[in-house]
Amino acid sequence: MRLRSLTVILISLLIACLSWVFTPPAVALTQIKLFDLSYQDCPPELAQGAVTSGGSAAAANCFIVTGKAENGTYKTVYDADIFGRIYDANNDSVMQNRTRLGSIAEVPPGISDFELRISVPANQPLPLKLKQFKAAGFSGQVRK
């Protein structure tokens, strides 16, 4: 019985030591700064049939949000989720209860351009106000 307990303890210690030595590289969340934001109407081929996600087939306007993404690391960031708030001319939220707006597949080190397609209910007055935009992604590919 004592030999069995000693064997279990030794194997547990061996596994613990090996897990410290052979750990996979950490895939940490990297913050991406988004700036120089603007928007324009979608090209006609993208705008056709645009509807909002409100469950009904409510008409919507299609826009492309463009800007710059700054990756301050030396590694490419993958699957960066874009977060932000969009308001109409009356300061009403365009995306109710939703701050994740989309994603950027890859953000190389340095400054790069990005674009994001959004649909806005047709009854919300323009111009749109783009606020608190940022992104966060991973230094290694997570989704395949």
UniProtKB/TrEMBL annotation:
Name of the protein in question: Biotin carboxylase
Organism: Amazonocrinis nigriterrae CENA67
